[in-house]
Amino acid sequence: MAASNNDASKSDVAKTPSKEQDVNGQTEAAEDDGANGQLPDNIFQVNIKLPHEPFEMQMTISTAEQVQDLRQSIIEMPHTFQYSCFHLEHEGQRINDYVELSEVTGLKADSTLTLVEDPYNEKEARLHTIRVRELIGAAGDRTDALHGIMAGLSLHDTVGLDQSTKPKEDGPEQSPLADYDFKSPGAIKNLLPPPPETAPKTIKAIAVSPWNPPPYHLRSKGHLLYLVVTTNENEQHHITGHVSGFYVNKSSNATFDPFPRQAPKAKQAHSLLTLLEELSPSFSSSFQALLEHNAKKELLTIFQLSNAIPANPWMVPAPSSALTPHQPDLARTQEPYLISGVENTETLRDWNEEFQSTREMPKDAVHDRVFRERLTSKLFADYNDAATRGAMLVARGEIAPLNPTEATDAQIFVYNNIFYSFGADGVGTYGTEGGDEAARVAVGKDVFGVRAVNNLDIPNLFTSGTVVVDYLGKRIVGQSIVPGIFKQRDPGEHQIDYGAVEGKEIVADDKSFVPLFEQLSKALRVKKHPVWDKDNVRHELEASVETKGLIGTDGRRYALDLYRLTPLDVSWIEAYWTEPGKEGESKPKDKDYPHRMATLRPELVESYGRLKLREYVKNELAKTAKKNETAAKKEVKEEESSSEEESDSDESSESEEDSEDSEEESDAEKKPKTKKLTKAEKKAEKKAGKKAENEAAVEKKETTEEPEQERVDISGFSFALNPDVFSGQNPQSDEDKEEWAQDEAEVRAACEHLLSEVIPRMVQELKDGEVGFPMDGQSLSSLLHKRGVNIRYLGKIAELADKPEPRLQALKRLVVQEMIARGFKHFANSKLRNVPAPFAAAAAAHLLNCLLGAEVSAKPVAESESSLKPMYPEADFSFEKLTPESLKKEILAQIALRYRYDLGQSWIESGKQLQLLREVALKLGLQLESKQYAFTKEAFANGAASATPAAPQTNGHSTSSSKKRKNKTTPPARAASPTVTLPQQTFHADDILNMVPVIKEASPKSLLAEEALEAGRMSIAQDQKELGLELLMESLQLHEQIYGVLHPEVAKAYHTLSDLLFNLEDKVSALELAHKAVIVSERTRGVDHADTILAYLHLGLVEHGSGNTKDALVYVRHALELWKIIYGADHPDSITTLNNAAVMLQAMKQYHESRVWFEASLAICEDVSGKNSINTATLLFQTAQSLALERDMRGAVNRMRESYNIFKEVLGAEDRNTKETESWLEQLTQSAVSQAKQINDMAKGRIRRVQLTGRDPLRPAAATPSASDAAAATSSSQRRIDQRKIEDLLKYIEGDAHKTPSKKRTQTNPRKRT
Questions:
Q1: pTM as predicted
Q2: Which of 427, 441, 751, 1175 has the most CB atoms around it within 10 Å of its CB?
């Protein structure tokens, strides 16, 4: 909402805040000041003289910044809003905007800078107009082609508002969790904010006048543009934008006279903002009210995203909702002109040149690297944005192809200097590999290949900017144009300079590519190997024959077609693929996998490489030191299991090898990291080259803990796989054949490692709860990918998880749901591909009805407009014939085909329809109207019944929408269109409000920011807190500088840093970062993304740790509500969260409620871990304590006895936990006896009953630490219970204790959450 409204363009109008003024509006200088008590030398205050009120102001500046940053800060300060066209002077000398402040001669503390207003030119006048429109809230809503409805939405500011607006009931104050229902299904209303307050209106309209642009004779007099303004007082003024500023002219709608009015009506000002203040008496007060209205919002939630594409919510408000108003605004259509001028030349960019010249920038000094990475990040963001917009136009048929005579799939397009083609096999390149399916996979893999090469950052090796967009069922590839790729070559000259040309018939091997591809292959573990062309001539290649090198006409060397950086997954292809036979011949049923592009993942190659290295080190050790053999073996074995577990449970690490490297490194170098740069360089070299020696030294260090042992020389170790085996190469000489056979064996071994080692271990760890349990399709696939497991193994995982164990059952349900969603996606895309845009919503709704609405209507009807059909004779309307049965058959076929899994009788689980709808909507880019969809007959009947008494139905939908018309002060909703009677079914065409593109892009990560974060982590691990904190702060600054604040990588950094700082007791900073992590994650990943839920849970813990338990519970509740939407109730990992909530309630003295939550947590735990597990025993122990706090002694004794029995059985009678529980049990039993006795006495009337309020009876003490300790034990292997004396608690239970404030252990199991 606000996000999309505040986004003028990608121009320099509304940039993200400058570095100097960070998003909270505090200057960073102020923060430094707080930290050190005095300002560093390069940060000081200067006075700025202004031409108008307030005539002077002070600003804190840093000499490391550019003058431009200072200008940006001035433009954003509330009392200097009106300036946009000015320069700064120091001692009468003009300062260049593009120099650093340190280069301004004589600039020191308390110097005076003068702000001098410049004459406007046409561009400045246009940009000033846009800026003022934004500022005064006159820019209406925008319908952006790329960003969907409410893109970049954040719920952070409104979470819990509906709670606080409820009138307080009499009696004790309720906690935020009071009416939480553990078993109810997820409620859609939690995905949208409540209706907003209307912003104050400052002006009725401002637009470019119909008299614009100025005629020639007036241009020479300095006229730049003409505007027309209608004030709140309903007066219309025509305004001339002139080089000297803006003035009211004598024109009217009928007559043209752009010269100034005579006094007293003459009004003139340099800034349009000042002129408006003079023209409209009410403007100042309403503008002030608007600024106050905007100030209520967290800045991060309304800032436009400039370095990332915002997340599109899949549930969006109805068109008539107050959240998405559509108001008249003439200037909306004029914005393209205001942003880029009449000629529109300012927006055309030579993307390729920009990409490559950025790559060539220096990267020796740290500040050079910061600048280079910052530019790279911004450039990729702009390119992804532009390429996606173009791809959408191509998909809708708005751009003419360069080759209109060819078949649709073979057509190519150029738009905005970006080259587009379809991800389909238009020209038969992939005929033998699987045709269109193979082409679709190849372009997807190509993007990841390009990203891998971009991350390696090899000097002088260039790639083209690549984006793949899935939109309306089509896959479109956008690439920056490599100079020379379209050049007609002379006869005998090849189109390609290295690699295969035209199929694999000719192989080119230009020697200049060898050193570049050698570095690439070394880093990606690709083996140098021979290949043969059609004449059986042998060529030694560094990379796969499919990877091509091209020398552009700009002399640069480009790597193209990077989809084969790893070998084929031989075991899969041999099992399920048949080479294509003659035309029309069908493939055997069990060997009909749709394509031959099944390759291994780079993470798997890496983990297999580590395995080989361990074997090598083991053998070397065995040779050199027989005596240490046994010890070494043990070490190796332990290291192998533990390091892999660690890397996976640390889910924030991007891929396995990264996190393991960091761990290995911390083991390897026990020396304190004092020199930041050496660390950075080392890490960079490591990432770039993955030097085998480095790693091996590390492995050696791990396998041999005692420092006096010799080091193993592993210069002899090399591991690389040949990516071209099993791809139709035929070696000629015996020597080559032998080598080839070895290569094949090696690749087979890697495939075997995946099947026999990686997948079973992952399933086992999920069963044991050693890794965070995935919540939805996205978190499941990222877990698989981190381990190097391809999605095609979902079927295999479902088979392995088909055991009675509850955690595995949960995993199987999730995997089956993911397979159905993906099968549906493939089938739906095939149907949508040839449906014209006006029918797309009807087709999507019909497909969803067949998938999820079969119970409501067994024969759903497609709601396509029959009157339009004759206009599209070539279109494919076959989707209308689909029924739920035929769709189910198609999806089962897709699952059998792609995942080799037979669903048998299982289908969509009842109660999980909402989760499947979400998965499907995210995969297809659907935005649905937000309401509780009815998936069953009962729900539909209830929905229809509740809708009848309501007002006339909007668009014929039942109005039992999830927003039950809250407060009436909201902006006027649009009138509903006349009622149309629609068939009774779950989804209607009007429910599909929009379809957004799903994007795969190749932007590299910032090595610099990650290195600083890693170094900070290590320093803290080695107990160097000062240095560690300094590095962490530096890494935070780098993340914000390089990526801009609103970026998924920054959300990740905020989360990690917040966690580290919280553990270092810096709660204030931790809390601030936890809030930011939530907002940035919501806006860049989605309001219900799994990471956003983790960010909310983390925020709850930090709020509680900072003493705001009530707020903490509001966030925890929101996270649990989201959890229900994306997973359903009872997620295995939610035990910990419910437990934390119970502990928080105990801290708030809400004993009864906290017991309810302990019991809920216990119920899931018994279900997931079994009745006799240690986790269950620990939770029983806590529940017993909570019952004791509630003075239910009998219940407490029973629970404690169950806990004791389990501990005794599992851990034995001598274990500390068992003994602890035993003594608790004895004491509780005594209390129970005395309590029973008291009750009896009371019943007999022996004791006069004392009101419990008077003297010192039950004084509710805060929660005992036990609860949280036990929570820690719940999910981790630390098996320990309360360390406090039992007597204290019993005294307290019996009423003698005094209040002891509790401190809760912060995070029960850090592994689970991060």
A1: 0.82
A2: 1175
